[in-house]
């Protein structure tokens, strides 16, 4: 798990990539080694995601996504933008394996997931952290237990859960709401629980659908800082957002723009977001 240094600002840890690496949890490191031993064919320099002429159609209607060809490099940070109805959520669903394309090729972690047997998909999904726009918290579980869920599924011992889960709740400003169930949390609080749950296991790929849509601007900056720190540890991050103010907060980030189900740039090139003078 990600461990924070002692200094905190407004309930959120001030941290650096060096500190996080030095204090990273042994359990996550061991799990990462296990995944590599299990035979991941992705090398350090290869793309983590490849789309080739991908199309997605719901039912018999027109294609929601058409002719998408692009690649995302391992360890990259990407903003997915576009107007409402452009197909951002559908593209994210392809990334986190909730859907398969109607046509085309998708490689994830170096493997073709279009033809992959369904029995192998759960193992791939465990390597992906997802922040859903509608949260999808388990209603009968507390905030603490919702955040702990990915670790329990991965087999982390109960004795090893308390510190990382409590720390992560503190990161998102919910240390005092650990025992609260989703129905008693505000929309912004549920959003933060969902984010904590998505990042607690330090996934190889993090996919976030409008993760700052229900929080105030200050918390949005803090959450983006969390994504940035995770990215510096090697996680590939894809954030769908309408908030153009976020785009310059991660200077090395690139932008993928959708319009009516197609890449706004027909070549599929990724563009750097505009720089903010005061960033």
From TrEMBL:
Q: Where in the cell is it found?
A: Cell inner membrane; Cell membrane
Q: Name one GO molecular function term.
A: ATP binding
Which keywords appear in this protein's UniProt record, sorted alphabetically?
ATP-binding, Cell cycle, Cell division, Cell membrane, Membrane, Nucleotide-binding
- What's a single GO CC term here? plasma membrane
Residue limits of the ABC transporter domain?
A: 49-279
Stored InterPro entries: AAA+_ATPase (IPR003593), ABC_transporter-like_ATP-bd (IPR003439), ABC_transporter-like_CS (IPR017871), ABC_transpr_LolD-like (IPR015854), Cell_div_FtsE (IPR005286), P-loop_NTPase (IPR027417)
Major location (coarse): membrane
Enumerate the transmembrane spans.
Answer: none
Family matches, as Pfam families: ABC_tran
**Record-linked Gene3D superfamilies:** P-loop containing nucleotide triphosphate hydrolases
Which PROSITE patterns did the record assign? ABC_TRANSPORTER_1 (PS00211), ABC_TRANSPORTER_2 (PS50893)
Question: How does the protein associate with the membrane?
Answer: Peripheral membrane protein
Q: Which GO terms describe its biological process?
A: cell division
Q: How does it assemble?
A: Homodimer. Forms a membrane-associated complex with FtsX.
What functional role does this protein have?
A: Part of the ABC transporter FtsEX involved in cellular division. Important for assembly or stability of the septal ring.
Family note: Belongs to the ABC transporter superfamily.
Protein name per the record: Cell division ATP-binding protein FtsE
GN (gene name): ftsE
């Amino acid at each position: 798990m990600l461990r924070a240094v002692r200094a905190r600002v407004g309930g959120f840890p001030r941290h650096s990539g060096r500190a996080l690496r030095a204090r990273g949890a042994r359990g996550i490191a061991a799990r990462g080694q296990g995944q590599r031993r299990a035979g991941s064919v992705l090398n350090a320099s290869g793309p983590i995601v490849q789309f080739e002429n991908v199309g997605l159609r719901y039912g018999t209607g027109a294609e929601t996504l058409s002719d998408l060809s692009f690649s995302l490099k391992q360890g990259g940070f990407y903003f997915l933008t576009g107007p409402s109805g452009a197909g951002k959520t559908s593209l994210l669903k392809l990334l986190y394996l909730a859907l398969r394309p109607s046509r085309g090729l998708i490689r994830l972690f170096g493997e073709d997931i279009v033809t992959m047997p369904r029995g192998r998909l759960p193992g791939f999904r465990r390597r992906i952290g997802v922040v859903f726009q509608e949260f999808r918290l388990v209603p009968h579980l507390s905030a603490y237990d919702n955040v702990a869920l990915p670790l329990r599924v991965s087999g982390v011992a109960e004795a090893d859960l308390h510190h990382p889960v409590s720390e992560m709740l503190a990161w998102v400003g919910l240390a005092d709401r650990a025992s609260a169930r989703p129905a008693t949390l505000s929309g912004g609080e549920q959003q933060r629980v969902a984010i904590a749950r998505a990042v607690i296991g330090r996934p190889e790929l993090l996919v976030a659908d409008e993760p700052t849509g229900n929080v105030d601007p200050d918390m949005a900056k803090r959450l983006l800082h969390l994504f940035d720190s995770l990215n510096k540890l090697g996680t590939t991050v894809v954030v769908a957002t309408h908030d153009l103010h976020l785009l310059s907060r991660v200077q090395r980030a690139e932008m993928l723009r959708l319009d009516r189900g197609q890449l706004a740039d027909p070549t599929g090139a990724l563009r750097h977001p505009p720089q903010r003078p005061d960033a």
